[in-house]
Design a protein that fits this description.
The complex is a heterodimer of chains A (324) and B (297). With 324 residues, chain A is α/β, with parallel strands linked by helices. Chain A folds into two domains: 6-223, 3-Layer(aba) Sandwich (Rossmann fold); 247-315, no CATH class. Helices cover 32% and strands 23% of the residues of chain A. Chain A is built from eleven helices and twelve strands. In chain A, strand 7, helix 7 and strand 8 form a beta-alpha-beta unit. The mean pLDDT of chain A is 89. The two termini of chain B are 25 Å apart. Chain B contains eleven helices and no strands. In chain B, 68% of the residues lie in helices and 0% in strands. Chain B has one domain (19-290): MetI-like fold (Orthogonal Bundle). The longest helix of chain B is centred in the middle third of the chain and has 36 residues, at 85-120. The chains are: A alpha/beta (324), B mainly alpha (297). Chain A binds chain B through residues 56, 58, 61, 85-91, 94-95, 97-99, 102-109, 111-112, 116-117, 120-121, 126-127, 130, 146-147, 149-152, 154-155, 165, 168-169, and chain B through 4-9, 11-19, 123-124, 186-188, 190-198, 205-206, 209-210, 212.
Chain lengths: 324, 297
Amino acid sequence: MTSALLEVEDLSIEFATEAGPLRAVEQVSFRLEAGRTLGLVGESGCGKSVTSLALMGLLPGNGRIVTGRILFEGTDLATLDQAALRRLRGRRLSMIFQEPMTALNPVYRAGDQIVEVLRRHEGLSRRAALDRAIEMLARVGIAAPEQRMVDFPHQMSGGMRQRIMIAMALVCRPRLLIADEPTTALDVTTQAQVLAEISQLAAELDTAVLLITHDLGVVAETCDEVMVMYAGQVVEQAPVGALFAQPRHRYTEGLLASIPRIRKQPLERLPVIPGTVPELSAMPTGCRFAARCPQAQADCRARTPELRMLGRSRSACFHPAGEE
Amino acid sequence: MSALPTDLIGLEPAIGRSPVRRAAGRLLADRWAMLGLAIVLLFFVIALGVWAGLWGGNWMASAGQRWEGPSTRHWLGTTILGQDILERVLFSTRTAFEIGLIVALASSMLGALFGALSGYFAGTLIDSAVLWLTGVLDAIPFYLFVAALAFALKGNPWAMHIAMVATFWTTTARLVRGEVIKLKELEFVEAARAIGLHPLTIIHRHILPNTFHILLVQATIVFVAAIKSEVILSFLGLGVQDGVSWGLMIAESTTEVTAGHYMNFVAASSFLFVLVMGFNLFADGLQDALDPKRSGR
């Protein structure tokens, strides 16, 4: 097995709260090869954003990595101090955020914000950094980049700002880009364009992408592999084709069933997964999805399922779909 | 505040208008604010003239008889010692500006520094220390504090300035802290962390410039408060030690007014009133112009 660009092993993250420590992420493991795109899917609060912040070393003050390793290019990010992480962030791994409206500093021109990254990490002169920034804006599909360089964020649309963010994130050619719901706040037509640009640029720069989303349509379009998280755990990981063709975990199955689409027989109502995600402070023993799972049996509530290979998927389910 | 928008060399915006220019546009359209600004500028010119030695230099000399009425030689009459009241009231303008500028600048800088640190590191020891310090300073009655300082510094002319800065910066710090706590949750600060900037760089380059509107408005408020406090402190004998000020003039006039000599009192209090009024008009307009929630012009 070749060593992957990013190898997360057994990562658990806890938050210190007044009610005691809450475990937001439980024993998450995955690999991401250089240049590949991994989709991280799950509903709000399932730990996908926390996982990505941990990779960046940007966990909020009350959060900490309890166990596990984050091997990035052979270095364990979990053991690095802040100064070492700062040297990596923006250069070897970078991140784009969900909300383009507030992701740019309102008092600086767009160009200045890209130039800042270059000057921080590559020590370029202002002139050289300006040229690189203009070139980068052109590459993220911005027309008249010289003009946009001197614009302020309030003069731009959401899609334009998100492109500036992408330019900032990719201008130093990082090996890994973490995109935390990069298109959720954009309208659908812009969404498709921005996604296409992220994919294309990542391919050109040979950058691996960890794409966090709750939109399975986005995953289908852009990812090589998908990882589904539920209540802080990975419940299924599979190549995109395999996952959509045959979901294994009952949660994934439920997610796919609840996507609105044109069906041969119109439905009375869209299937939903009944119930809600268990509270972090009151996690059930056994499978965390058991309470909402139509196939749950006694053993699901007694023991915690481990991830195991099933066809081309890894899933953590005692009674996986497609085995009946 | 060196970190305001810098222009990119050779790339001039065609439609690009910076937040500062938009605010300036709104301010220019506000008549009352412009009237206020005109008044403040007029007083500033008076103060500059005193510094340049054009007028007000003769404030100490006995140039006439005691308690002369207004005349062509002494436009506003004379004091009990025969000093020209106009000269004294003009010189006092300089005193007022000196105090206002020094106190406003110093307390804005202190407030920005401590407010930003305690806001960014909210919940940590740094924050607790700053909050404790502001709490303690706010708990001491202002005049008691000045009297104690004046006594401790044994008649040092800076005792009043130090006391004012020590009490006025806390409000600025509190406002800045609140704004910083709000700002640091925004994604551009998260993005600044994600590109690997040091926390102090983030505070300096990304957070403080966004609190500039608060600092500016707060500085004008402190400026007025300092001038008014100077008058009260000088009246109580705790204020200006060398030179003359509106407060000292009003203090002198207390016995004169009962004897029917109003000029000292009228001159000092009208100058004070008009300047404070003008500054308040300007500060009000500035606050509106800088309010980010007001869109358009």
